[in-house]
Structure formats: C-alpha cells, structure tokens
Write a structure and sequence with these properties.
The complex is a heterodimer of chains A (about 110) and B (about 120).
Chain A lengths: L3 E4 L2 E5 L4 E7 L6 E7 L6 E6 L3 E5 L2 E6 L4 E6 L8 E8 L7 E3 L3 E6 L1
Chain B lengths: L3 E4 L2 E4 L5 E7 L5 E7 L6 E7 L2 E4 L8 E6 L2 E6 L8 E8 L10 E2 L3 E5 L1
Classes of the chains: A mainly beta (about 110), B mainly beta (about 120).
Chain lengths: ~110, ~120
C-alpha cells in the first residue's frame, strides 16, 4: 500500500525567504504528484502538479521530481505571509480507481 | 470562490445516531470523493463516485454509505455514529481525463463531533 511521508512537520520562514518541503513515496509505480495547500478554515486547494522527472516552475513555486529516489519537493521562493498554510503532497498511481494518497502535511508559517 | 459546497459545516451527533453529510458541485465533474481527515493524520479516501459507479475503500467498506442522486450532489451516510467517526469530512470533485485523476476541488469540509 502506498505510503507518503512529508518533512519537515512544520517550517518557520521569514518573509521573503525560501521554504523547502519534502515528500517521499513508497511505490515505484507512482505516476503523478500534486501539491495542495490548505489555509485555516478552508478546504485544500491544488497548487501544482508534476508528472515528469525534473523541475516545474509556476510563479514563485517550483516542484522537483525524482522518481528513482522516490522523492518530490516543493520550493517557495520569496515567501509571503499569505503562504502560511498546511501543504499536502498527494500521489497518484495513474490508476483512476485508486484516487490520490495524501501525506500528513507540512505546516508553513511565514513571519513578517 | 468555492464551487464545492458542503453541509452542514459543523455537526454534533450522539453515539449510535445516524449522520448524513451533503456535498454539491457546480462544475459538472464526473467524479466526487469523500475523504476523512483527523488531527495529525493524512486525509484518508473513504469512497468515490465515478458517474453513478460507487467505489469504496476496503477498510471502510462497511462503515460508510453514499448516494449520488444526480451529477451535482453526493451524500455520505453513517448509520450508527461511534466516537471514532469524529473527524473533518472533506468532499472533492474532479473530471476524469484519459483515465487519470484530474485536479481535485475540495469543499470547506464538514466537522463531525460524536459525543
């Protein structure tokens, strides 16, 4: 059964700094990877997805995937207080019937 | 802009009583999901509907029921609530694309407290 682990559990970042979040998965057949962000009182919202090895950049957010290492990461550049949230890594096997498996999340706090 | 709505947002239930949670979406998505989220745990997939076909996870098969009377609505039903059901229940929807799970759009959640 797929295991998704995230680190660190929490992260404190100064405004304008870089936040780096890590995610490891257990199944080598994993195909698709998502990052979701959840602000307090709201449901999770998709930030970005990555399907191929390497980097994918969307604005201040960069995802990196290394399937051989079973590792995906998210880097937030120029962190803003509005980036303070719970970040989930979610993994798909590519089989629609299996849905997405989520990690525990990393709580990011950006202080001014 | 939340286009997945959940009701109620908060639900207090007695042990042994039934609970019905409702979800609606306006995006004409073919798939609707229910996840359970407890403190310090990852969101756990309970079940999902693809069109009218219900898929339930093996370990929660007997604990939760669901119905989808039309494309826009989906319910989660607990026949007899136990203390272990206290959690946040997240509904999500997506559009299946080429056999793959597309982006999930979540509602704000229904927080269930069982006493």
């Amino acid at each position: 059964q797929q295991k998704v682990q995230q680190s660190p559990e929490s992260l404190i970042v100064p405004e304008g700094g870089m936040a780096s979040l890590n995610c490891t998965f257990s199944d080598r057949n994993s195909q698709y990877f998502w990052w979701y962000r959840q602000h307090s009182g709201e449901g999770p919202k998709a930030l970005m997805s990555i399907f191929s090895n390497g980097d994918k950049k969307e604005g201040r957010f960069t995802a990196h995937l290394n399937k051989a290492s079973l590792h995906v990461s998210l880097h937030i550049k120029d962190s803003q207080p509005s980036d303070s949230a719970l970040y989930f890594c979610a993994v798909s096997m590519g089989n629609y019937a299996q849905g997405l498996t989520f990690g525990l999340g990393t709580r990011v706090s950006v202080f001014p | 802009d939340t286009t997945v709505k959940q009701n109620p947002r908060y639900k207090l239930a007695r042990v042994g009583k039934p609970v019905n949670l409702i979800c609606s979406q306006t995006m004409n998505h073919d798939t609707m999901y229910w996840y359970q989220k407890k403190p310090n745990q990852a969101p756990k997939l309970l079940l999902f509907y693809y069109d009218k076909i219900l898929n339930r996870e093996a370990d929660t098969f007997e604990k939760f029921q669901s119905s989808r009377p039309n494309n826009s609505f989906c319910s989660l039903y607990i026949g007899s609530a136990g203390l272990e059901y206290s959690a946040m229940y997240l509904c999500a929807s997506s559009r299946r694309t080429g056999g793959l799970t597309g982006q999930l759009y979540f509602g704000e959640g229904s927080k269930l407290t069982v006493l």
